Structures are given as C-alpha cells and as structure tokens.
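To close the chapter, one final illustration. This time we ask the reader to focus less on the individual chains and more on the assembly as a whole: which components sit near each other, and how the overall shape emerges from the parts.
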Amino acid sequence: MTDAVNISSRVRLARNLREYPFPDRMSDAQKAEVIEKVKAAVLNLSKKLLFVNLSELSELDLVSMVERHLISPEFADKQSGRALAVSEDESVSIMINEEDHLRIQVILPGLCVEEAYRIAEEIESELSLYLNFAFDRNLGYLTQCPTNLGTGMRASVMMHLCAMSETRTVPRIATNLQKLGIAIRGTYGEGTDATSSLYQLSNQVTLGISEAAAVENIRNIALQLSETEKLTRENLMQSMEYQDKISRSMGILLTARLISYNEAVRLLSNVRLGICEGIIDNVSIDTVDKLIVSIQPASLMRREGRKLSPQERDKVRAELIKSTLR
Amino acid sequence: MKCQKCKVKNATTHVKRVVNGEYEEYMLCGDCAHEMGFDNVFDMDMPDMFGGLMKSLFGALPSRSGAARCPLCGSTLGDITNTGKVGCAKCYEVFYNELLPSVKRIHGNTTHSGKTPGRQAIPEKSKENSEKEIKEQIEGLKKQLDKAVEVQNFELAAELRDKIREMEGK
Ligand SMILES: [Zn+2]
Ligand SMILES: [Zn+2]
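The assembled structure is written out below.
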C-alpha cells in the first residue's frame, strides 16, 4: 500500500539473448525474430501477460503508458521492431527491443522493493527456461550499455519528499548517497522546470553487488529518508503559514476552471501532505496519487478519447480534479 | 548552441522527453542534463559521457585480442567507444581487456555477484548455510533441471547439472 512518503516501488531487469546483436545493431529481420522468440516464452509464463507489437498501439496509448511509468519515453518513441508484454493490472511489463532485448519491470504501490524484485526474478527465471540470456562469469548479465552490467537490475522508489524539498535538504543528501552508488533525483513535469516534490531513489551500481544487497540498500535508505521527511513535516506543520498554504491549495483545486499540469501537481503535492498530517480528511492519499497520474496530458486525452488543445486540457483537468476531490 | 535550461553553457546533450502528451527535444549542457537526471540510465543512456570516458581512457588502440571487428555483430572498438554502446554479447569477449577499465570506472568493480542463469539468487548470508538449506537449494535446482529438460533447453540443463554436481561435492 502507498504510504505517507513512499508512493511506489519499481524493479527493472535488463536481459539479452546471447545469439543476437544488441538492439541498436539488429536488422529488422533479427528484431522480428527476437520478438517471436520472446513472445513464445512469454506465452508460456504462469503469469498471464498480454502481448502486443508496438505498431498496433496509437501514439496516445503509448504516451499515456509513459505517463503511467509502464514504458520508457525512448521505447514509445519508435514503434517498429518493438513489442510489449503487460499484465492486466499493469504491475508487470516487459519491453522488447528497447535498449536491451528484454526489460522486465515490476511496479508496486508503496515501499516494497523486495516484493517487486521477487516477482521480477520469478518471471526472469521462468523466461530463462526458453531464452538463452547473455551472461559472463565475471561481468554478469551482458547489456548494451555497460552501466547495467552485472545484475542488470535497477531498483527504485518514488518518494514524496515535500517537507525536505521545502527545506532544501535533498541536494546535500544526494551528494552523500552518490558515494554509496545510489541516486536521488527530482521527477519533472512539463518543460525543464521541477514542479512537484516527487523524487526517485535508485541504485546506480549493478556490478559486484547482489540483487538482494542492492534491494536492501534501497529499502533501508528509503526508510531513513521517510523518517527524516516525517520529522521535517512535523516541524513544518507547526507554522500557521504552512497550514494556510495547504488549505489554500485545496481551495484552488476545488474552484479552478482552468489548471495547468504543473500547477495541479504542485497543489496536489500540498494536499497530499495535508492528508498525511490530518489537516484534510475527506480525501485519501490513494485518490491523490491516482489523480497525479491521470491529469497528465496524454492520459487526459486518452480518457476523453480525442486530441485536446492545451487550453481544452486545462479545462478538462480542472473538471476532473473537482469531481474527484469533492 | 546554448543550453536551453541555464542558457549559459554550451549544449552537449540531446534529450527527448514527453511534454504535454507529445515528444519534445532539448539541448542541454552536461550540468543541467545531470541535474535533470538525463544521465540516469534508468530513464536514458548516456552516450556522451560514457563514450567520452572510454575514448579518453584508451583512445583508438587496437584490440589486444588482435581482432579488429567482433565476428558476431561486426562492431569495431571505435564503434563502441563512439556510441557508448556495446554491439553484442560477443563484443564483451572480443574487447574484454579494452572495456574492463571503463567497467571498473563505472561500477568500482569488475566481478559479478548475485544471480547466475538458471538458479535462484542465493542471499549472501547463505554462504555459511546449514546442510539442510543447501539440500533444499539442490532440490530446487533439480526441479529446474527437470523443467529445463522438459522444455528441451539442454544448454541450461547442462549448466544446472554442473551446478548440482558442484554443490553436492561440497
Ligand atoms: Zn545548462
Ligand atoms: Zn559484437
């Protein structure tokens, strides 16, 4: 379950087939062969996944999948020679012919990196019965980019560090974490400006550290950050000024007729904090988290079933927020 | 061209991202790209940084293994250093000595630890495991071996067989 600080956990495993060049060096025919091989393996999995060629999907479908963190922007950018396997609840997805032949991803709400890894590992083990993954005794799983060598595993936690970003403590922590091979980065909204106080914590080193150890590191650091964030929130909430800011945020969200994505996320971030601190009690954290995903441009347009101009989007967004928060 | 974010430094990194439900491309300087997480391989590769890194490390040296091109994908060492991307699994074998310094720079390490094909990742603590746990692990491997034979993946079956022998020997 999603909690006050930890929004979601994600684990991604990179794998390649030994007998084919990596995606950047593959011919169209080879890409098609890899897709067929992976498809056959995926259809044998005990977990049922839907398998689609990317060219069968509309651009709106693809971009909204990016917004839901189901696939990467680079993957959605080019449709030919690529395929996707996805579970009905969208917690499991496999990108085929992205940067590597396979990118197995599991995303779960809240802080549960271990569980996400367990599921990803189970799928990978089953797939390895049918696919020969490229592996070297010293370098581990071989990947197109050497930054993923070894376990090929990237574990991450999406965190809502609103109080710590208010007090500007994140950059200092980021410098310390870097020494441990762990990165913490702000997630960005539209354009190049930081909008929300959502951060992603992830491991950078994949060679020489086991999956279990890397996952445990991420989990421990997420727990420590959560504690710090909670203490910082308590301090912040002492000030009437901040309480006022939260109430006003809710006020704008409930009355605005036009609202940009950036503004909405910033205000929802305040509301989320208000819920956690008991200032707002008629809305759940879960509702806010879902709203933050669904008010993104492509998700909005997909919901409406058509392309919308930026102003139309701001209007539809304002309506969706009002009807959800009321 | 100047960086589109700070508008001061020269842009060196070309990034793509989804903006307003559509793709948008940016030219950023190295610092701004880093700040925005665009050298984070979770979301994006880092050809500029990595390629540059490798180039500075060993320039255009010929491969120590003597091969100019990878026999499987045809990549030269130059192709790899210029793009920051390795051509195929075989490249790692052919250009192993040349790639190793960069791998060490990136990870601080050159020896894999963790899951190996056809085996559950065994937690590190289990190195001093009781005999019972080792027996359980062997049982698990045997089950996987049966399954591998069933689906006729003989390569994996052979690996599993060797691993079982090794573990039973201990
Ligand atoms: Zn800049
Ligand atoms: Zn090669």
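The helical segments of chain B are 30-35, 47-58, 77-83, 89-94, 96-107, 131-150, 154-169. The radius of gyration of chain B is 22 Å. With these observations in hand, you are ready for the problems at the end of the chapter.
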